[in-house]
């Protein structure tokens, strides 16, 4: 007779997991920051990352066993967020870890116990996978746990050999899947069928260290690293169609829908995708800013900026014309503050960063969207499939429109962008900057310095305006101030105000043509 899964909130799932392993000798540790100590990754991408030095034998653990709920961010599948049922940028990974203590048999036994006795998942709804060469794990599942052979699937390295990155700790793994349709039987089980199966628990048997050349060296101690996806378990236990409709994310979606005046249930699929993107990304940016990441044009700061911009753009796609991110962020903070008090402590910083980025990006969108729309319409009329690199660069250089945003909008309209052409235009700009350093005649500086004492400083308006009406304050011909100049003469002019950026801070100055 099968048991019935418990209908638990996300917070209850998190606490039950931690309590279970605490009762089995694990020390509950707080989530590490999203800014990792590991220099090989920009963000914390897995629950095991904070323990990587321990797994490598570089640090002595304070405890033999630990359990955590770790904040994680991955952006490698960002285009799938909101489209599939389970892809996210931000997610929580529940984990239990053994540092040279228990190994495969105990990890498998506890994984099965918490799944079937704590969360009450029916045994007949569970399928497990093992690495194709891991006969030991296969035998444990079959002989010790009692899973039938047809419900133990051998998988290749791509699916069942876990690696934290290009280098570092790794090993074979065993995964537990939930079967939404056990009535289909045990013949021809395909774990890639995400309409039937969802993988929710990964048990990694950390046995090796992988070096830069791909060589595997046995670790000094055999370790256990596991990860149970909180959002996935919430979907199973709350019996909703996808992760986004769990109590971990759906209140954010509902807040956004209310701002847009949308009924989520009646919304079309495209609108739902935008709502899901916002629901996912706002969780990510709230926690990133809480961990003191600032938006910028490089590294993790650029990831933050990109996520905020995607939130803003998807807001516009569903009809939100004004600023809204701080309202949605408040819901995300409310959902997170009990488990992660730091988000409330950093509330002012979170909202200030969001407002600043949103305000600036809305101006960028207003400048660039109309031109991109014209480019797309022209391409369609001419039966083209690709937007030229020159057009992509013009959007980027003149309007501040990010290349990946142009690519995303192009894809939505069935078009590609010429990435190679864009890269070539970027290189041309860099070369012009290098040439400018070599050819600019600085002998006129003395004349400019004299003029500077007589006229007001040029007002730079480029942060808010791309086009400006201005007054010519002075004309220089061969370094000498003149009242006028003949047609065709090379001159320099000083303006009352300008939207053109001067070369400074490592950024190439604006150039005309």
UniProtKB/TrEMBL annotation:
The keyword Membrane does not apply. Keywords: Aminoacyl-tRNA synthetase, ATP-binding, Ligase, Nucleotide-binding, Protein biosynthesis, RNA-binding, tRNA-binding. The keyword Magnesium does not apply. CDD domains: AlaRS_core (cd00673). It holds the Pfam family tRNA-synt_2c. It comes from the Bacteria. GO terms for biological process: alanyl-tRNA aminoacylation. Residues 8-513 form the Alanyl-transfer RNA synthetases family profile domain. Its cofactor is Zn(2+). GO terms for molecular function: alanine-tRNA ligase activity; aminoacyl-tRNA deacylase activity; ATP binding; tRNA binding. GO terms for cellular component: cytosol. Its EC number is 6.1.1.7. PANTHER family: ALANINE--TRNA LIGASE, CYTOPLASMIC, ALANYL-TRNA SYNTHETASE. HAMAP family: Ala_tRNA_synth_B. Belongs to the class-II aminoacyl-tRNA synthetase family. This is Alanine--tRNA ligase.
């Amino acid at each position: 007779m099968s048991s019935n899964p418990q209908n638990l909130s996300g917070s209850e799932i998190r606490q039950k997991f931690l309590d279970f392993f605490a009762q089995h000798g694990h020390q509950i540790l707080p989530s590490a920051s999203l800014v990792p100590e590991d220099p090989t990754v920009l963000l914390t991408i897995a629950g095991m990352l904070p323990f990587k030095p321990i797994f490598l034998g570089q640090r002595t653990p304070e405890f033999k066993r630990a359990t955590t709920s770790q904040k994680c961010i991955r952006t490698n599948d960002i285009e799938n967020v909101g489209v599939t049922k389970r892809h996210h940028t931000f997610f929580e990974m529940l984990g239990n870890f053994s540092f040279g203590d228990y190994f495969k048999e105990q990890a498998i036994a506890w994984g099965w116990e918490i799944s079937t006795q704590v969360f009450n998942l029916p045994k007949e709804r569970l399928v497990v996978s093992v690495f194709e060469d891991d006969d030991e794990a296969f035998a444990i599942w079959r002989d010790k746990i009692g899973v039938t052979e047809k419900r133990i699937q051998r998988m290749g390295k791509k699916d069942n050999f876990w690696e934290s990155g290009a280098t570092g700790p790794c090993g074979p793994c065993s995964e537990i899947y939930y079967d939404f349709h056990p009535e289909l039987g045990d013949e021809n089980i395909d774990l890639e069928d995400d309409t039937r199966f969802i993988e929710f628990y990964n048990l990694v048997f950390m046995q090796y260290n992988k070096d830069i050349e791909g060589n595997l060296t046995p670790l000094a101690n055999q370790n256990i690293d596991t990860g149970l996806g909180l959002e996935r378990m919430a979907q199973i236990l709350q019996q909703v169609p996808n992760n986004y409709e769990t109590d971990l994310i759906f209140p954010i979606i509902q807040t956004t829908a209310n701002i847009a005046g949308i009924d989520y249930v009646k919304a079309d699929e495209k609108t739902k995708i935008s709502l899901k993107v916002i629901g996912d990304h706002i969780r990510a940016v709230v926690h990133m800013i809480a961990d003191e990441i600032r938006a910028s044009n490089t590294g993790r700061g650029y990831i933050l900026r990109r996520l905020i911009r995607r939130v803003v753009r998807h807001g516009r796609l569903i009809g939100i014309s004004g600023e809204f991110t701080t309202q949605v962020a408040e819901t995300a903070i409310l959902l997170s503050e009990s488990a992660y008090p730091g988000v409330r402590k950093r509330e002012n910083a979170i909202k200030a960063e969001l407002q600043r980025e949103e305000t600036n990006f809305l101006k960028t969108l207003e400048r660039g969207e109309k031109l991109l729309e014209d480019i797309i319409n022209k391409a369609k009329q001419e039966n083209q499939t690709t937007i030229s690199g020159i057009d992509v660069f013009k959007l980027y250089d003149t309007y501040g429109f990010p290349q990946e945003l142009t690519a995303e909008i192009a894809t939505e309209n069935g078009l590609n962008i010429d990435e190679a052409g864009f890269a070539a235009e970027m290189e041309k700009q860099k070369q012009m900057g290098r040439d400018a350093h070599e050819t600019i005649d600085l002998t006129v500086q003395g004349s400019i310095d004299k003029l500077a004492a007589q006229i007001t400083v040029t007002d730079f308006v480029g942060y808010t305006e791309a086009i400006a009406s201005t007054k010519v304050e002075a004309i220089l011909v061969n370094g000498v101030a003149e009242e006028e100049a003949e047609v065709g003469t090379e001159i320099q002019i000083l303006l009352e105000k300008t939207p053109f950026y001067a070369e400074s801070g490592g950024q190439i100055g604006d150039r005309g043509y």
